Amino acid sequence: MDSGFTFDWGAAFGSLPYLIKGIPYTLLISFGGLAIGFVIGIIFGLLSINKNRLLRWPATAYIEVFRGTPILVQVLFIFYGLPDIVGGPINALTAGIAAIALNSGAYISEVVRGGVQSIDSGQSEAGLSLGLTRNQTFWSIIWPQALRRMIPPLGNQAIVSIKDTSLFSVIGVGELVRQGQVYIATTFTAFEVYFMVALLYLAITLTLSLLLRIVERRGIAST
Questions:
Q1: Contact 169/181 with Cβ under 8 angstroms?
Q2: What is 22-218's CATH superfamily?
Q3: pLDDT of amino acid 130
């Protein structure tokens, strides 16, 4: 059956000025959250391989909770649930950044753990034999090698986090999807607008992938 649908390129390109307004919010939430998540990931990733159970178990619990629950539930809990505890509203942008930070932090923790444990134990023994302390051995020998191996999975996590921001329209954050929804409400051109939203997300993630490949190649070349 002929639906009579014709793609309206005018509506698609006409939505761009409105959609572009959402890109700064998408990038701010993504990279702001990832920056915090990277710090969280280093801390909890190292704690998760600590021999002290009192340090290892809480770190493992955090990782499992945030990896085992949907990020949409997490941001809803932060935005709607936490105000009941703190006694005041939480800004939607703050809630989005916090959700990305906590969620990505859990995944980055596993990346850090895997990266560190992938380094041969002989590297540590070599550092100690040179008279270095365990801390000096770790940060001077183990960590630089582990960090190079972490680049691909960290890049993948960055791309996932960028796409996760599309869920935050439910709390009113003015990112790409939210801007698209507002525009659709007045123009009724859902197909064209969401098509452009998808293209903009694709442009962002492909650009990031390209940059990560360059960084990865330079890292390999410097070894």
A1: yes
A2: MetI-like (1.10.3720.10)
A3: 83
